[in-house]
């Protein structure tokens, strides 16, 4: 792709490309991102931006093959940029990129098409791991079949992606009924839909639940894609959506050793305005301390969300068997379970977390090593 | 404290207290926070808020000693609230609490009054640990003296507070010059002021740097309280402050095993509008992809921040010796070092992190067990 035209104004190099697209490049941006600004080995930025003034500008711009050169008014320096690089990093409207993550939300029909991987393949093939992780990134939930019946299996599989996220419950946790539970997960009660640990500054990202035994009557697992529910609320009740995104409520868990509290919005948005997180856990919701003028409306919005989350059209129900593992994005997909009867047999899930930072990093590295680019 | 007067409207119980303060309590809030709404053992919330309607309201309110009772229009239920509880959780303006964390920002004069603790006391006395942690929470930086000269000491001390925050560099890291560095910390170069790992979704909270040896010439440590710098920018250049808080820039670190990227604002605010985090790391700043209409102004704001961070009136310089440990809030206090000459002697710091969630939890538990209340 060639350059059709270019000109300079006070702050900006304007380029019109051969395909008609236009882009602007601010002088400070160009100087800051000159290829000599990065360390040869670590590729970290080493240029000191303050070594030039606010008013730096080109004294000459020249084009030579597929490169654009700039001589600068300061520092006796020439920078060179390839056309490819200039188009790749263009930030003008004509180059607006789809930076969202190819997320696809789902409802109850997802139960028939849940992505699954084979434990053996995921452990030994990077290609199989990548395929399974791409599905998990897109849908927020995927299964692994034929897990070994060992306590270590959940950790070994999770570590194919990255190091574990520790919490106040440890690096791993066992979900089964115990005599003196510190929270409701460790009873035989039904567990309403929730996301884990919204009382932490950063709730855990991906949750791994390996079913070692499920021989009790009852105890089916239930899941809802919070992103789908929020898409619908955003359209049908935009004011409720805004309240849930803009107001923060307190969450808390405490026992003898911990007292973990955080104010967090139920809905988090990224810089593109997309929903990135849902934090919903009625058990850990502390006493709301919202301003009095929004309290009533907030309760109505919150209750709307609660009702929508229980709508059966969003919900999938699975009966995990020994050897199954379900993995889901804990800040997107809500999970719960039906009541079970511990006298009828053993129910034992073993869980761990890997956070989003490590998941996404691994996905990028696998795409690179498996030749699927950036 | 008694109740002077009370009345009901459509949604709210209004109370005027004997001291003249007024508070409102919304019916949904009162019903949701009835003492029977919490589990007897775990203290988690078990009441199903959807078991009542949007229109629930009192049929009778009565006062009996220091308790207020409400009979509800639904569910044949009576709730009781002590006056103390009602005042403690009041969310009306008259009860607006100072919920900020008694933070005190500092400038270069802090060098003469840096809080310090003795390793032996911190390890064996909860009271000493609490005092030292309160100082660290308030000022964002504190020292520990007379650390043992072992590789484990930094971990053992950090674990007095909580479990470690793992990163792509592991649970601990060693700062010394190495032949093939993956980042500039592991050279003998000067390290400009920065916060660690803004490329992570949540940058690490408290950083522990144990000085095992510092016999090289040079290599002094430097620190700046980012909160103080931002207070000044907020007053003197509010538009720059807003840009740094509202726009997100990309950060990135990559090597053979990781490719960790995140868009984050340089300044994060909490729900009270207070600065909670500064993320500043020129080395990890990736190529800015801001909208073209803010790019130039953003660069000016960012450069203003850079200049302020270098202003000597904010900076403290310390020469850590063997046995010293400096601990600081990595999302508040920027750190760096002067260049050193590795041929003149060994310089070896060993580091780890404990995140804010665990730090704050430990502080609450220590306050409780040391009898300083909530």
UniProtKB/TrEMBL annotation, chains A, B:
**Signal sequence bounds:** none
The segment(s) forming the TauD/TfdA-like domain are: 125-353
Matching Gene3D superfamilies, A to Z? Answer: 3.30.2020.30, Clavaminate synthase-like
Family statement drawn from the similarity comment of this UniProt entry: Belongs to the gamma-BBH/TMLD family.
- Say which species the protein is native to: Marinobacterium aestuarii
Listed name of the protein = Gamma-butyrobetaine hydroxylase
Keyword field = Dioxygenase, Iron, Metal-binding, Oxidoreductase
Stretches assigned to the Gamma-butyrobetaine hydroxylase-like N-terminal domain: 9-87
User: Which Pfam families does the entry link to?
Assistant: GBBH-like_N, TauD
């Amino acid at each position: 792709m060639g350059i059709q035209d270019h000109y300079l104004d006070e702050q900006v190099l304007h380029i019109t490309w051969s395909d008609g697209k236009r882009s602007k490049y601010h002088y400070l941006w160009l100087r800051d991102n000159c290829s000599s600004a990065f360390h040869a080995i670590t590729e970290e930025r080493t240029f000191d931006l303050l070594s030039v003034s606010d008013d730096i500008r080109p004294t000459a711009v020249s084009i030579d093959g597929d490169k654009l050169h700039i001589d600068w008014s300061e520092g006796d320096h020439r920078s060179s940029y390839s056309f490819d690089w200039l188009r790749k990093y263009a930030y003008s409207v004509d180059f607006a990129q789809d930076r969202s993550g190819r997320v696809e939300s789902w409802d109850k029909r997802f139960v028939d098409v849940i992505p699954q991987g084979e434990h053996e393949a995921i452990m030994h093939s990077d290609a199989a791991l990548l395929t399974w992780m791409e599905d998990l990134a897109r849908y927020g939930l995927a299964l692994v079949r034929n897990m070994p019946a060992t306590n270590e299996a959940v950790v070994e599989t999770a570590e194919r992606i990255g190091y574990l996220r520790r919490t106040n419950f440890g690096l791993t946790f066992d979900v089964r009924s115990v005599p003196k539970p510190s929270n409701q997960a460790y009873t035989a009660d039904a567990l309403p839909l929730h996301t884990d640990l919204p009382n932490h500054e950063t709730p855990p990202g991906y949750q791994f639940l390996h079913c070692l035994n499920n021989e009790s009557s009852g105890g089916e697992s239930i899941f809802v894609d919070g992103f789908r529910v929020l898409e619908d609320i955003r359209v049908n009740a935009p004011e409720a959506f805004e309240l849930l995104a803009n107001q923060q409520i307190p969450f808390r868990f405490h026992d003898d050793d911990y007292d973990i509290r955080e104010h967090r919005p139920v809905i988090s948005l990224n810089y593109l305005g997309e929903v990135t997180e849902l934090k919903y856990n009625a058990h850990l919701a502390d006493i709301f301390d919202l301003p009095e003028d929004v309290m009533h409306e907030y309760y109505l919005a919150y209750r709307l969300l609660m009702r929508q989350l229980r709508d059966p059209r969003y919900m999938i129900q699975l009966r995990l068997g020994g050897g199954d593992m379900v993995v889901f994005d804990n800040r997107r997909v809500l999970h719960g379970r039906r009541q079970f009867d511990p006298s009828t047999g053993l129910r034992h899930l073993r869980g761990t977390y890997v956070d989003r930072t490590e998941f996404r990093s691994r996905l990028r590295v696998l795409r690179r090593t498996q030749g699927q680019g950036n």
